[in-house]
């Protein structure tokens, strides 16, 4: 029996560090816009991955219940992965809401 690295987990892609460049005058709006698009696409990509992991766990649950799944540990792993991914998504959402609420409480001027 061999245990592969974390890359073997379906749908896992490590995050790359963002490239840091000094913006030129007048280019800060474009940089801000590009960063916003990247964050939005990362959020959407994460939600799509979460949906895929949950769909996989659901289909394996049906196969396990019907007796057509040869290895029950495949379902157990998929269900655990879906549970952890859901908890992570909820934690990120809660932190985003907390940050937004803190920003809204800030005094201007």
From TrEMBL:
Transmembrane segments: none annotated. It comes from Nocardioides furvisabuli. This is Flagellar hook-basal body complex protein FliE. It comes from the Bacteria. Keywords: Bacterial flagellum. InterPro entries: FliE. Its main location: other. Belongs to the FliE family. The gene is fliE. It is found in: Bacterial flagellum basal body.
